[in-house]
Amino acid sequence: MIKHWKRLGIATGLSLTLVAAGCGADNEDMTQADESGDAEEENYAEEMDYTIVGIDPGAGIMERADQALEDYDLAEWNLQTSSEEAMIAALEDAIDNEEPIVVTGWGPHWKFVDHDLKYLDDPELSFGEAQDIHTLAREEMQEDFPEAYEILETFEWTAEDLEEIMYEMNQGVDEIEAAQNWIDENEDVVASWTEGVDEVDGEIFEIVHGPWGTDLAAAYVMLLVLEDMGYDVELTNVESIHMYTAIGNGDVDAMLTSWLPDSHATFYEQVEGEVEDLGPNIEEGAPLGLVVPEYMDIDSIEDLQEE
């Protein structure tokens, strides 16, 4: 059973090809061309109306993006809150028209499979290093559900595994079907999670997750795995802050997508000591940052600063 709670001109890098036919290019022409190229780069900010397209206001990456604006002295820039769906729509519209755009980005995510994108360098580490994705359990879950606890404690996979499911889901494949396809193609991985674990008989087990593709992919895979072991699994879909409240209060049994040590640090600190961290199920596979299309001639967050 699945329950749902409230859900809340492109610069191409001017390249001067000089065709020598007995005489060189005039220095003045080169200077004018360079100035023209600089002007085009400077126009990025104006073309984008000094706007970075973000996602839900409760997401940890938005806190980091706000910090980046401060760290890089980007006071004139606006961090626009929206949703993952709205951010992707804006990104794809910009790409279709080869227009500049800056979005908040993270991995694992199917958008890196579908489009040529790059993270802007972050020398100030406003977004931190690549993170782990952890599994959390409520207090006393091990005593109440020892079999599920053993599976979740053993649960490990890769960012690429997660992206395979997310990509299928984005192509219109039903979440259950996409999760089952991955399980069918990775039986050895799933077997390593469940090896030696006894089956149960209809015990109700509740997993909390967010509305994002990473959360949905992980939740539906574990739903199928636990149901195959005899559990009656319920999925509860909420925003980030409510995931931690739910597991901290003991209202749900587990969550699979705690982004640590940075993105969800504020939420995790509120329940630390009231939940059990079972460790990362994906190690160093979750970078955060500002993302742009490859065709944009900028490489660092510093390039967004006005001269």
TrEMBL record:
Origin: domain of life: Bacteria
An example Gene Ontology molecular-function term: carnitine transmembrane transporter activity
Q: Key word Transport present in the record?
A: yes
InterPro entries cross-referenced by the UniProt entry = ABC_Gly_betaine_transp_sub-bd (IPR007210)
Q: Which Pfam families match?
A: OpuAC
Gene3D superfamilies this protein is in? Dipeptide-binding Protein, Domain 3 (3.10.105.10), Glycine betaine-binding periplasmic protein, domain 2 (3.40.190.100)
Residue intervals of the ABC-type glycine betaine transport system substrate-binding domain: 41-185, 210-305
Q: Where in the cell is it found?
A: Cell membrane
Q: Which SUPFAM superfamilies match?
A: Periplasmic binding protein-like II (SSF53850)
- Cellular component, GO annotation: ATP-binding cassette (ABC) transporter complex
Major location category of this protein: membrane
Signal peptide coordinates: 1-25
The protein here is known as Glycine/betaine ABC transporter
Please report the organism this UniProt entry assigns to the protein. Answer: Salicibibacter cibarius
